[in-house]
Write the structure tokens for this entry.
Amino acid sequence: MYSNKLNLDEFFFAVRNQEYVIIKITEEFPNYYKGSDVDVFCADLNKFSVAIFHIGNNYINSSNCRIEVANIEENNHTHIDFFFDDDLDFRFDLYSSMPKFNTIKMKKYYFYSVIDRKVSFFREYNKRKYPAYIPSPVDGLILRYLEYLDWYEKRPDKIKHLDYILDRISEEKLKNNFLDRLHLYAEFPHNKNKDYHMRSYIMSRYFSLPLYYIKKIKSKGMFGILKTIKKIIDKYIIAFIKIKMRLR
Amino acid sequence: MKNKIFIKNYRYDYFLIWGNGLEYKDEIINIIRSKLYLEILKMLNHKPKSIKRLVKAVYSYDYAPFHHLKSKIKYLLSTEANVIFIFVKNNNVRKVYSGEGQFRHVECEYIKSIKEEIRNKLNEKKEDKRTEDHVAHASDNESQTDYILKYLGFHNGVNLFKNIPNPLLSVPYHIVKFDKFVIKKVKSTQVYCSILKGEKGSFSKRLFTIEETPHFACLNGNENKYQEYLDKFSGTLLQDDYSVSKLIKLSKYFSYLKEPYAKNYILTEEIEPEKFKILDGVNRASILKFQGNDKFIIAVAK
């Protein structure tokens, strides 16, 4: 049975002039079950949140409702949770940049590209039509695919995303677009040269030594100099042997 | 926001009321307060060990070499070693070139016009002409503000004002950062205000209900109580911009959490179960109570 304690149309009507997309919108929308959530990519997370709070205040005033807010990942991801009688009823899961996936990294501007290519569908609130936004069909499939890649090992039920993609990707044009955009925005890790690592290690470890000892000599005065010089020579002999062994 | 293109059109400036301008303190603050694009962030009384040292610090970052300024600022050495710094967010940065030759420098036309307005009005006059014994000084650029803040012991300089405790709420820079908060409705009797008691030298902070605060008393017609409170602690323990007239003006047009103040929740922390201490918003809470609200919405920092 649906919860529907919140009228989601009321919230999305309030943000009708903002740049956002609802990710993985369900067929039941705006109906929802208790404890469910909606993922939203927002161009301006602060502005979007304020609109949610503004509507949320009416619920707080009229019922036993509270809103819990948590900023995650350096304020790039925010949970706005609506509780009724101490039970989590609904979560707005808001992103202001690309979510981090464990198995694949997407270029950061893909986030803006998804918002830029949004498509609208019309809903009605208070007898007024308003546009709500979802990703383009290709981006919708890519985002489901990314979630599938990230979760299929831990949660086998995520296979539903792959089934969904396979159902819709039969059309040749959509398939090509899907692959083109996925390859354009997927980021592959840069394989750094091993030698480069070795050189930078040697430079940072031993090149700073002369400066360090100049400082020491200055602070110890004349009497400590001989002792220090002996120490320096010893250290450099050890360092030289170490470098030789590493380069071998 | 990391990925956004953001064009900064503000900066942090300061005004300084010299010892010879202290008698016009309220007038100067009112001039600054009345400016649409200035937001007072911090007011600080400062008693330097010697006025000479302070003068040197103020002018050490000036565009002109100190020896050129010596004659200009000679009068300051005979003034009282007691000054007031007013740090502002300047939302109308209009940079222009000023001066000639080696004194050519960039300054903000807006700040300069306010500085001149104060000087024209309040500098001592001789034969109907303004003397150059200035009652106030203002910064030419943000690096001067940064330097003075560091001189006063705020090691972060202007970064002090860049602290955003939580980007989703409108709260002052001096609140400690927090990532979680709850928005809920509470009874006014559950909300407590931290009020200063005692004298400047030996003070303590105590919790009072909203009705017991000088702010509420002011709204109830006892303006003197709030004025005395401000006179005692303003510029030392209270460094935000508070005034009786500001509170009364706010109470007349106050509409809690309505645009453009939708993010201005009364911010609290839970000190005991269901007992909340206000971190920011004693004025707003007092007005709400004064308006007859026995319950209102607050944000509780976690």
In short: Chain B touches chain A at residues 1-3, 166-168, 179-185, 257, 259, 262-263, 297 (CB under 8 Å).
